[in-house]
Design a protein that fits this description.
The chain is mostly helical and 460 residues long. The chain is 74% helix and 1% strand.
Length: 460
């Protein structure tokens, strides 16, 4: 377990500190690049490689498959390690991986297999980054400022979702679809520079710095190969020949799973999120195909429509705090989800210009509700879960939540080939509506606010 270094900036939790600004700037830039790549990669597949609907769905699935493959052990590993160096390593890997795509395209060697490999490798880096990032934020801003910090970061992500698709469309129109992937690689480079400049260091339980060689912020291990946190009983030394570390890793993974399964609130949110992600990703994985082929939109129009649809997330981020204050965090979350789900039914409802308007309205409304609900539930988890288990708990929930995304992507591609793109979008919208029954039958329905701490039986 690591804790925030005892600096006035961290204790005060101010969002105006230099370190939070650096994190905010770096992640906003990275999220903008990822939003560009989210449109650019399918455009490269559709326009450059002439891929079919199934291949586009497979590309989406590949980016999220690592949550199923490495999500659970990643949570245990992240709990053992200082978080900032993990984030640095992940952004560096992502930069290199996505830079390889335009290089291959310009040399005439780009294939669908290369795109799938890049998406998968970037997905592995994203798993470790996300777990470390979520655990690192509370140490940087303090618990009392988490809602405000998450609101700003989610607002930036929503702004990126607005600007990213439009930028991807412009880049594709002017320089080719692959230029958007290059922009993503550059954005990871900016994030690396910002993270390297952060001065706040985590401390271990005995008060010593948990990052080895903090001046460069890069090394997580000493030169002799041992881990930088000096508590063998925590299972940090992965080089022991007696297998204790491996047994400890399995025990830590079980601890995280047991906590989630035994907690009624996390269990409900996890099941709902998994069902919802299947529906949302089945819908979103083929939306570029729907816009380009069913509605006849050009690359620039695709980017513009997705940008306008993404603007709903900005509204959701702006309203999340007010919704929590007016209705309560739990009730506000339920209201946001109840608003978002039926909006998806508008997406496939029209054709031609009318279809573009309907699709934009659907994305705007669903995005507003989902972003606001994500802010409320994300802040709840960061406050509710024991800090020493946060990585494992997050990995346990995310392995199912995000692990459902590749299933949704594959389902979207398979059904798109079998019953048509429009019919698949209708079906996924109906599944999203049905997923609300999990919330209505769960323990959150009578609550005004999320609980502040787990029930005694959930604690390890």
């Amino acid at each position: 377990m690591t804790a925030a270094a005892a600096t006035p900036a961290v204790r005060g939790g101010s969002l105006r500190t230099r370190d939070f600004r650096l994190l905010w700037i770096g992640e906003t830039t990275s999220m903008l690049g990822s939003a560009v790549a989210g449109v650019a990669l399918p455009l490269v597949a559709v326009v450059t490689l002439r891929a079919g609907t199934f291949s586009v769905g497979l590309l989406t699935a590949a980016a999220w498959l690592p949550w199923l493959l490495v999500g659970l052990p990643a949570g245990a590993w992240v709990d053992r390690l200082p978080k900032r160096p993990v984030m640095l390593a992940c952004n560096t890997v992502s930069m290199a991986v996505f830079a390889s795509v335009p290089v291959a395209a310009w040399s005439g060697a780009l294939t669908m297999a290369h795109l799938l490999a890049a998406a998968t490798a970037g997905g592995v880096a994203k798993v470790f980054f996300t777990l470390a990032y979520r655990a690192y934020l509370p140490t940087l801003v303090g618990g009392e400022r988490l809602l405000a910090a998450n609101t700003r970061l989610q607002g930036s992500e929503s702004a990126a979702q607005v600007a990213g698709p439009g930028l991807a469309g412009l880049l594709a129109q002017g320089f080719g679809a692959v230029s958007g992937v290059l922009a993503d690689a550059v954005s990871f480079g900016v994030a690396v520079l910002c993270l390297r400049s952060i001065r706040t260091r985590e401390t271990s339980r005995d008060g010593t710095a948990s990052e080895a060689r903090p001046r460069d912020g890069m090394n997580e291990t000493r030169r002799d190969g041992t881990a930088s946190e000096a508590h063998p009983r925590d299972g940090v030394n992965g080089t022991r020949r007696d297998g204790t570390a491996r047994r400890r890793l399995r025990a830590e993974i079980r601890d995280g799973l047991r906590f989630v399964v035994g907690d009624p609130y996390l269990r409900t949110l996890t099941v709902f999120s998994a069902l919802s992600n299947i529906a949302l990703m089945g819908y979103q994985s083929i939306q570029v195909v729907f816009l380009a082929r069913n509605l006849g939109a050009q690359p620039g129009q695709v980017g513009a429509v997705l940008a306008l649809a993404g603007a709903g997330g900005l509204l959701g981020a702006a309203l999340a705090g007010r919704i929590a204050a007016r209705f309560g965090t739990a009730r506000g979350f339920l209201l946001c989800e109840a608003f978002a789900a039926p909006m998806l039914l508008l997406g496939p409802a029209g054709s031609g210009g009318t279809g573009l308007v309907f699709f934009t309205a659907a994305g705007f409304g669903a995005g507003a509700g989902i972003v606001a609900s994500n802010i409320l539930t994300g802040t709840f988890r960061q406050r509710y879960c024991p800090a020493e288990m946060f990585g494992r708990i997050t990995a346990s929930t995310s392995a199912l939540n995000y692990g459902a995304i590749p299933l949704g992507g594959l389902l979207g591609g398979v059904l798109g080939e079998a019953v048509g793109v429009r019919g698949t979008m209708w079906l996924m919208a109906a599944v999203q509506l049905l997923s609300l029954t999990v919330l209505l039958l769960g323990p959150l329905r009578p609550l005004r606010d999320f609980p502040a701490r787990p029930p005694a039986r959930s604690l390890p």
